[in-house]
Amino acid sequence: MKTMEDQRTSFEFDKESLALVEKIIARYPPGKQKSALLPLLHMAQAEAGGWLSRETMDYVASLLKLQPVEVYEVATFYTMFNLQPVGNCVIEVCRTGPCWLNGAEEIIAHLEHRLQIKAGETTPDGKFTLKTVECLAACGNAPVMQAGIKYYENLDVEKIDAFLDDCSSKDATTRQNPYK
Question: What's 83's DSSP letter?
Fold first, then answer.
């Protein structure tokens, strides 16, 4: 895995990933390679340490024969893409209506207290990043958070503590390449 410093100067997929990139691009009609942008950004983020530097986005643009700004527009629009370094475990707590009404504010406050950071920050040891996000589409089980590809629903302080203790004891990571 590339370090933060390595990513600032260059990023390239390995041969295995490039073969997968070709398969993903081939799913779309000729001239419509931009449709592969989201999967390629997900792959790049997973392989580049959990975030997308400008150089990484430029590399993805070159693979798809796009202008870099076309990639920046997408990466800055979606909260699933991190444009700054993040911790090994990225915790995203929904803060919209149903979650807020069911205690998301308290969940966020408890996470901030336990981790000793504010939303949008990463712990000094690089283990956890806390983010607040818009709807995670599990309103019936609010409040909800996501860590990696896993959802945690009907949250309360005890469930948060169990999650944090489990992640801390395993030195867990939520960085996964969903295409491998």
Answer: S
Q: In the beta sheet, which residues pair with residue 177?
A: none
The pLDDT tens digits of the residues spanning 121-149 come to 999 999 999 999 989 999 999 999 999 88
**In Å, how far are 2, 76, 150 from 7, measured between CA atoms?**
6, 18, 27
In which residue are the tokens 């991190």 written? Answer: 82
Is residue 66 packed enough to be buried (19+ CB in 10 Å), middle (13-18) or exposed (0-12)?
middle
Non-local CB neighbours of 72 within 8 Å, separated by 6+ positions: 54, 57
Task: Provide the 3-class DSSP secondary structure of residue 76.
Answer: helix
Distances (CA, A) of 52 to 41, 71, 89, 105: 8, 11, 16, 29
For residue 102, give both structure tokens. 């069911």
Please count the residues of the chain.
180
Nearest Cα residue to 142 out of 101, 87, 85: 101
